[in-house]
Amino acid sequence: MASVVVGAFPPWWLPTQLITGLLLVLLTACDLRHRRLPDVLTLGGCPLVLGALLLAAVLGAPTRLPLWGLVGAVVFGGSYAVVRLIAPCSLGAGDVKFAVLLGLAIGGVTPLLVPVVMLGAAVGTLVTAGFLRRRAVPHGPAMALSAWLVIGAPVF
């Protein structure tokens, strides 16, 4: 919130940050505790993030923000859906739905960062698995952290 006051990023981005940030915390906690990403948060969060992007456009953001969000959702969610189809054991269906949600918010900054976030999530998951010496670890927390680095400190 302090960064809005000092002008580090435009105030119209704050609703997107708050909504996405809350969803990231809730989804990360669910994934760590239950190894599930509930539909009520992944699918239910998509209209909230899209609404925040539409609100940003009304409050003075570039009008392309919602469209870029949709492009990001298609790229992130579509890429994860393809991986899920090819190797179903590598990603859960919740990860695919979470990717759609994150793609909306990341795309609002720029869809060009979606592949960077995807790479960051993959590396984060691999490092966590290596550190914990486990073959399977939740992927959601790495997705959330990687995405938050873009959403929390956007460069427009």
From TrEMBL:
Origin organism lineage: Bacteria, Bacillati, Actinomycetota, Actinomycetes, Actinopolysporales
InterPro entries noted in UniProt: Prepilin_IV_endopep_pep
Origin species: Actinopolyspora saharensis
Transmembrane as UniProt keyword: yes
Transmembrane parts of this sequence: 12-29, 41-61, 67-87, 99-124
Residue ranges of every copy of the Prepilin type IV endopeptidase peptidase domain listed in the record: 19-126
UniProt key word Transferase: yes
Gene Ontology CC entries for this record: membrane
GO molecular function, one term: aspartic-type endopeptidase activity
Keywords linked to the UniProt accession: Membrane, Methyltransferase, Transferase, Transmembrane, Transmembrane helix
Highest taxon of the lineage: Bacteria
Protein name per UniProt: Leader peptidase (Prepilin peptidase) / N-methyltransferase
One of the protein's GO biological processes: methylation
